[in-house]
Each structure stands twice: as structure tokens, then as C-alpha cells.
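Below sits the subject:

***
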Amino acid sequence: MEYKGVITGDIVDSTTIPMEKRAALLTCMSSILEEVQETYALTFEFFRGDSIQVVVEEAAHALSVALLFRAGLRSRSEATVGKTCDVRLAVGIGTIEFAAGQVAISDGEAFRLSGRELDNMGKSTLALATPWEDVNDEFAVTLPFAADVASGWTPKQANALFYTLLKPWSRKELAAALGMSPQSVSSLLMLAKERAVSKMLQRFHSLVQSKTH
């Protein structure tokens, strides 16, 4: 049985974004996911204007992709639309069935779990559902803390975290890429709670790997 990850999301307070800037926001979101796509196998589609659905080929990477997308959006949206945008994301893990390879008309367990979580998450910004109760129980405790941390990322913190999670760079290489001192990068990552976020992602990856391999 092959498991995949499905991420369904929508922009928080999208009605406050002027219509003339909506296209630029979609371009920004696409560019973030295309960059993530260089590391993680995924496909994505937009629907209803401000909503997105992402299929992550390796289920264990789904939560990493979700947080990378959120960090990318928080770091880049201000320059695009004049405000720091955020996104509600619901991650579902399970089997899926593609219809003609199109995300929007695909179905399966992962899609249903992701869609249900998005419908039920209210004002929360991060949700997760898997077929395994022990995984769900553990992340019902840890995920709200991660969501709260992510909601507080500044654009600079989010940008540093994005590349830390995405690239196998040393702090010196990351600092050079961002045009900052290593000390400044370390400070940004500390404020972004990078160590705690990375540990949570490693735990998720390990648990899902143990269930799917």
C-alpha cells in the first residue's frame, strides 16, 4: 500500500488583499512551491482563487513541505502584496487515487482526511490527520505549539528558516546566501524556534517512515 501526503490550504483573511494583487500572490505561492519542488517530489493546483492543494509523493515529507510553504509565504508576501500573509494548512496522510493526473479531481483517503481537517480547524492554522491513532494523538499535542510559533515568524525569521529547512547548508553558507553574518542568522533562527521545529519534523518523518516502509 502506497501512502502520500495531501496538503489543503487557504489564505488567512484573503478578502483584505486587493483584487489587483491576487494574481501576484498566486505567482508568489507558485514560486515558493516550485523551489520546494526541487527538493521534494510534489504537485500542486490552485482552486477557488485563494486555496491550494499539494500532493507530496513521500508521505513522511508532508509536514516539512507544509511548514516550508508557510515560511516561504510569510517571508515573501509582504514584498508582493504589501502585507505579511499567512495560510491555514491541513495535512492528510493516506492512500490516494489520481484521476488523469490532476490534483483537483483526485480522490482517496489522504484527500478526505486533509479536506475534513481544513473544514474543522476553525481559526487554527495547522492541522494533521493520519490513519494511525498514536501519530494523531501525539501531534494533537505538539502541532498547536508549532502553529503558534509559525504565526509569530517575522519575514526575516521565516526566510532564514525556509532555507535552513530546505537546503543542506552550514550556517556560514546560509549567512553568505542571505547576505548576513552567521551571528545574525543564528539569532533569527533562535527566535524562529528552529531547533524545536526541526525536532518535530524529524519526529514526524521517523514515525511516518516506520508506518509506511
